[in-house]
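Section 4.2 – Deliverable D4.2 (structural model, holo form)

The reporting period included a commitment to supply a predicted holo structure for the target in complex with adenosine-5-diphosphoribose. Inputs used:
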Amino acid sequence: MPFQELINNASEKLAKADRLVVLTGAGVSAESGIATFRDAMQGLWAKFNPEELASPSGFRRDPKLVWEWYEERRSNVARNRPNPAHYALAELEKIFLSSNRKFTLVTQNVDGFHMQAGSNNVLELHGNIVKNRCFREDRLLSDAEIERETVPPKCKHCGSYVRPGVVWFGENLPQDTLSEAFEKAEKADYCLVIGTSGLVQPAASIPVVARQSGAFVVEINSLESAITPISHIFLQGKAGETLPQIVTEIKKY
Ligand code: APR
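Output (structure tokens):
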């Protein structure tokens, strides 16, 4: 089927949907210049294994190295901006909410770009790279609660190291956020999956649960992924080009 026809079909269904769940992954931020884990392992970092850097044991082993890796990723996020895919999703949220329909955006990304682009209700499954937490007590720390004389800096309350506010390999996802995401997936009648390889659990199960509960599943990805086999429509293309096309289409209904 020609691509435009697939866009039209996906948009027609979306225009009629009542309860939309969107799942995004690293691909949605690719056009903003945010490297995925694996892409970020270049240059100085090429000799490290991402699963080792992004883990509590990696941080215990070499806190300075892990902190510096995250500082570099943070400055990359600070240098870059949301792209048309993020803005299209923010617009889609407004369209749904203004017609009293349900909209939930679940993201695996830690860059905060969905919020920057104007999305209001975002479930961040893997945390946010801008935030800081105490490594010992796990609580979120404001700038005023951080002593910045060492690398990594230290928690002013207990003297433990500060760590980035992201979920590392081997750690649990935030329980409330996760439960809400799956609850919405079970109730959804449409699930839009964008720019995720669908390999990392439990996020990868969201479209599966939505489909099992009767949702229509549409995937946008520049390449086939683990989600493609369970999608009703696969839109092969860049998120920053495809999503604005869909938003333009649904405004016609
Ligand atoms: N538009 C659409 N899709 C794209 C684009 C683009 N411009 N560029 C890349 N993609 C797709 C790739 O084809 C791939 O399927 O985005 C996907 C990115 O996959 P991953 O890098 O595996 O990212 P993600 O699925 O979000 O990873 C999940 O794993 O690395 C950990 O915790 C990290 O949250 C992350 C999780």
